Amino acid sequence: MTETHEEYDPRMLTLLQMIWGEGFLSPGGPQAVREIAGGIDLHGKRVLDVGCGLGGLDQVLLTLGAGHVTGIDVAPLIVEGAKERIRRSGLNNKIDIQLVAPGPLPFPDASFDIVFGKDAWLHIPDKAAHFAELFRVLKPGGRLAAGDWMKSPGPYSKDMDYFFEMEGLTYHLVTLAEYGRHIHEAGFVDVSLKDITDKYRRDAHEELARMQGELKGMMLAELGEAGNAHFIEDWRSLTVVLDKGELRPAQIWARKPAA
Ligand SMILES: C[S@@+](CC[C@H](N)C(=O)[O-])C[C@H]1O[C@@H](n2cnc3c(N)ncnc32)[C@H](O)[C@@H]1O
Is the CB of 25 inside a 6 Å radius of any atom of ligand 1? Predict the structure, then answer.
């Protein structure tokens, strides 16, 4: 049996899609995918999406020209949901969703033109091993494009610990500098990191206002009083660590040298 990692409960999946759109479990929905992948020629390319969630991003990657997308994730419930969504969309021949165990990737060397990830690698403790694996499965000249969450230097504050507790998820965050160093040390070149904390800080405040306004009825109906109150507090704690600049979302690009 595949060793898996199920942390996102159904309530969390419902809430995240209410905020970011059906099939999306991370900030920005389809627009964020277009921003991250926008500068890369996806035409006819084989893409690996590591931590694909419910697969909404993989559909966007296809609309941007990707030839084939392999989406992998470690959570059985999420993978089942993604497979079902992709089956319904009729894109089975273009998007392949697979449940994998955390750790080494089940693909031969040089299998993909592009590795993509969106706010998923924050759950991976061993960044060095992770980027070494991404480097290995990329073809020479292949590209890495991702969004991820990072942190300011120093130990987590009480606010950050409280945010993690409210999320009920395990995060392994490093600073932008450490993140960049891991990517370099894996062998990538042209490494570029863009800190988008200011943008997401503003967006998160808007998301909290939507949860207390236009989404309130839906949240109460889907999540009940207790669930509604929990997620409002979760989002409030998110805005605190963003306002402090302790949680630092970023976009990342890099290239594997050609041969
Ligand atoms: C915030 S969700 C983002 C999902 C998707 N990328 C999106 O933006 O909609 C994080 C995802 O990472 C997955 N994940 C956690 N640890 C992982 C690992 N070691 N390898 C691959 N995926 C992982 C979770 O199961 C979850 O689906």
Answer: yes
**Range 10-255: architecture per CATH:** 3-Layer(aba) Sandwich (3.40)
Is the beta carbon of 26 within 6 A of some atom in ligand 1? yes
Reported as a single tens digit per residue, the pLDDT across 38-56 is 899 999 999 999 999 999 9
User: 157 with 246: CB under 8 angstroms?
Assistant: yes
Chain mean pLDDT for the chain: 96
* Domain edges within the chain: 10-255
Q: Do residues 165 and 135 make contact, with C-beta atoms less than 8 angstroms apart?
A: no
The DSSP secondary structure of 125-160, one letter per residue, reads S-HHHHHHHHHHHEEEEEEEEEEEEEE-SSSPPHHH
From atom 18 of ligand 1, which residue's Cα is the shortest distance away?
102
Consecutive H or E run containing 47: strand 46-50
